[in-house]
Amino acid sequence: MVVSEGLLKWVMRFYPPLLFQRIWVVKFSKGYRGVKVKIRKSFLNKNYNNSIFGGTLFSAADPFYPLLFYQIFSHKGYKLTVWSKSASVKYTKPAATNLFFNIELTDSDIADAEHILNTTGKFIRFFPIDIYNKDGEICVSVMIEVYVRNLNFIDTTI
């Protein structure tokens, strides 16, 4: 579904898997070049160590790169299948406060993806996400493997 940045922000804010984990989309950048996300610590996502549950942290990182690629290329008229193919999570510090992260796609990221989608039909790449506490310390580092398939690609080498 192709939607505006503002509308998708509100849809994602009230999407139950994010809402109940206290994952809040602060803002999508113009043209879906990035997103800013806040993870609020609450009794709904606290573990027995009084820090944010690791599953909440992974859930916060999981959807955003695929979502950005989907929106960027859908706005360009592509028909796509997009998902997080795999991920690795490294917890470096207990998440004892609210957390934040920003994702930014560069012009090069988008141009590379578009070139690969038009020449091979599928783009697969790892992207990093560092999740910070209020003091700017990294609490979690995630590597998301994004899979994007151009459903209109026809392989002419066969």
Structure, described:
Pfam families: DUF4442. InterPro entries: DUF4442, HotDog_dom_sf. This is Acyl-coenzyme A thioesterase PaaI, contains HGG motif. The chain is α+β, with helices and mostly antiparallel strands and 158 residues long. It has a single domain, classed as Thiol Ester Dehydrase, Chain A (Roll). It is 29% helix and 35% strand. It contains 5 helices and 6 strands; from the N terminus they run ααββααββαββ. It has a 6-stranded antiparallel beta sheet. A hairpin with a 5-residue loop joins strand 1 (23-28) and strand 2. The radius of gyration is 17 Å and the shape is elongated. 30% of the residues are buried. The mean pLDDT is 95.
State the CATH topology: Thiol Ester Dehydrase, Chain A
Per CATH, which architecture? Roll
End-to-end CA span: 32 Å
Any idea what the shape is? elongated
The radius of gyration over CA amounts to 17 Å
Q: Quick one: biggest sheet? A: 6 strands, antiparallel
**What is the average of the pLDDT values?**
95
CATH superfamily: Hotdog Thioesterase
Total helices: the number is 5
The SSE string, one letter per element, is: HHEEHHEEHEE
Low-confidence stretches: none
Class derived from helix and strand content = alpha+beta
Strand order of the largest sheet: 1-2-4-5-6-3
Organism: Mucilaginibacter gossypiicola
Protein name: Acyl-coenzyme A thioesterase PaaI, contains HGG motif
